[in-house]
Amino acid sequence: MTERKAWRKFQSPGPHALKSGKAPWHTSARTSALVGTRMSSSRLTTSVHCALSSFFAMTSTVPSTTSLQPAAAGTHYATVYGTEDILVSLCNSVTRVLSVAMQGPVHYSAMVQRITKTCLKPDIGCFVLFDGGFSGLVILNFSADAAMEVYERYMLSMGMSSDDLASSFTSDEVSNVLGELMNQVVGDFVSKIRRELQTHIRQNQPKMLVLNQPVVLSVDANLDQPEARRVTFYTNNNNIFYLELAMDRTQFVKVCDFEPQAAPDPDALMEQVAGSDAAPSPASGPDDETEALLRSLGM
Q: Which residue among 150, 153, 164, 226 is least enclosed by CB atoms within 10 Å?
């Protein structure tokens, strides 16, 4: 008992220790450790402050090397055209041809889908194969409402009466009109590829199918790492049709500067041809024939 009381008295400070102002040995050690920790923290804060001050002083006098600077004179950066650029060119051909044919606006979505395979879908599917500088497949999938709107607006703009129009999207007239318009779309696209990318591709005859259920269409061409995209189009009446493109994974790198050729104007070409045919050829008079005869005789 005497040893246990002595140990407790030694372990915890008694009232006499607090009154006398003398802390026990372990309390003094803790206080010393706390004071040392605070001093170390204060020294660390002072060191960090000095380091940051030195860093900001250096950055204020030394110019940054990561900021974008204008390219030096003569620096050339190659321009690269990829799948999305070719797709945008094709979409612009679709909007241009159909807007003129329908006499109304046609626009496409700003979002493009990456797909794994192309597919003909109801109600009418049109497709065209092309090859040459690169190979690929173009598909247009129309709903019945979109197909009839394109057909009716195109035929009315051509001067046909509404009474003479087909009443069903399954009619051969509707398929023929959509096939003709797709032929114009791909023709405009091929012409732009020839002018802007300076390569040549050729197309086959468009094919149209009236479908009751989705049909998976595989490309009958040797594609090097094929890529497929789908774009949503909207007509003037907000009817929807889809464009799908499958093509080689390829890039065109512009290594030399050139100006793309302007699109030929058919009206200007026809006027030029008509003017050349109408210009009279200079008639040869008798004096010219006499001079030619004397010149041949050496006189």
A: 164
pTM: 0.63
Mean pLDDT of 191-210: 88
- Partners of residue 233 on adjacent β-strands: 108, 241
Q: How many CB atoms lie within 10 A of CB 244?
A: 23
What tens digit of pLDDT does each residue of 46-100 get? Answer: 554 555 555 545 544 444 443 444 445 445 556 888 889 999 999 999 999 999 9
Q: Average pLDDT for residues 166-171, to the nearest whole number?
A: 91
Residue 211's Cβ-side half-sphere holds a number of Cα atoms within 13 Å equal to: 21
Give 37's strand partners.
none
Write the CA distances from 110 to 80, 82, 121, 128, integer angstroms.
21, 17, 22, 24
Dihedral-angle region of residue 103 (phi above 0 means left; psi in -120 to 50 means alpha; beta otherwise): left
Q: What are the C-alpha distances in Å from 73 to residues 76, 131, 253? A: 9, 40, 21
- Does the CA dihedral 182-213-113-138 come out positive or negative? negative
Identify whether 163 is preceded by a cis peptide bond (ω within 30 of 0): no
For residues 126 and 101, the answer to whether their CB atoms sit within 8 Å is no
CB neighbourhood size of 188 (10 A): 18
Cα 157 to chain centroid distance, Å, stands at 32
